Amino acid sequence: MIMIFQRFDDRMIGISNSTANMVSEGVLKPDQQQLMLEGRRTFTGYVLQEVPANSSIPGSHVSMPRYRALCPPVLANSSTLSHTAFDSSLFFKSAWPEDVRVKEPTIIAEALARAKKYLPEKHVSSVADHLPRVVDSKELKHTSTGIIRHLLRLSTEGARTQVWMVSEKLQPIVKVNAAMFKKYYWELVRCMCFC
Amino acid sequence: MWDEATQKAILNDFDLAALMEPGSHSPHKTGFERTCTKPFMALQLLEENARKGLIPRRYRHELESFAWCFVWIALCVQSGEDVISDSVSSWVSGSHRDVRDRKLGFLTDAKFALTPDYVEVESLLQSWMEYWDDDNCKIQRASRRDPNFQEHPEQKYIGDFVDFAKQFGWEAPFEMDWVDVKL
Questions:
Q1: Residues in chain B within 8 Å Cβ distance of A132
Q2: Which backbone phi and psi does B120 adopt, to 5 degrees?
Q3: What's the pTM?
Q4: What CA–CA distance (Å, rounded) separates B169 from A162?
Q5: What is the pLDDT of residues B144-182, one digit of tens each?
Q6: What would the pLDDT profile of A33-62 be if each residue is shown by its tens digit?
Q7: Of A104, A81, A88, A96, nearest in space to A46 by CA
Q8: Which of B13, B15, B28, B83 to mutate to test the interface with A (most CBs of A within 10 A)?
Q9: SS3 assignment, position A150
Q10: Which residues of A touch B18 (CB under 8 A)?
Q11: What value of ipTM does the predicted structure carry?
């Protein structure tokens, strides 16, 4: 295992912002900072759709493999812009949730499904209108950290797999004026009540 | 967050959300990761026992978290722009215990230094936060006395939350009725 970590540059190993409850020598140690590869942190980015240089962005049909996400500084300096179109309405997110967790796109879909199933019709929109609109998502099974653990005959408990999600872009709610904020705040409280 | 196209507020970021069985009061614990954003966490969830997994997550914690989000915004946002607030900068770093102590200390401040945009909600925010603090204390004392102590139903918390807002002139612009559903 040490040899494997030696192959990663120091810059790729860091202390995560997140904490976890860990069991060390049989003792539960809550709230421990995690050492992890930096590449496994959640990141987000704008969406670029690869299209011929002279083409405009086709309609709303999207397919995950045709999209690439770039961080804003890269976007600004990219030499590939002539071959891509920046779709300002979409947003990309990559995360490494634990395998045992229900993934974010599934949670959103389930919240919507339960609203339709359980709520009176007049209240469905109180949830449906206030959930992110996920355009596409993909779990990259081949990236599972459980694979290498399995090959090394280690426990795969706590293994993670990368999940990509493209959704419609949102704005920070604080950007609206104080009067609109009040309406939005209560919309969110109501949505949470029904979720 | 907010959707510019639909002009609707959006509840976002379900990375670490959990699916609960319909009718249950607390999510089943899965995984080891306990990522959270300390400035917005309910005070009870910043306690040592919560980090050991001894305090089940309840709906009231989510509601309190909403109130802390509002406190943050009222302290740090003016005309849609972020402004630096000394009050909250110390809530970002440090251990859970540190952040809990600082947030409790904030609640004892005589005056919240809200931005001009939100100064009118100072009394409401103070009352909301005192409510959560008092409620936490009551629940802890009751739980110590009686291990089988049953918390109030979720409806009470949303009812109190809405009533406080109405009392201070910040009521919801639509009906906030609790809907009983058949499971």
A1: 1, 10-12, 14
A2: -70, -15
A3: 0.77
A4: 46
A5: 898 888 888 888 888 888 988 999 999 888 888 777 777
A6: 665 555 566 777 777 766 555 554 444 344
A7: A88
A8: B15
A9: helix
A10: 101-102
A11: 0.87
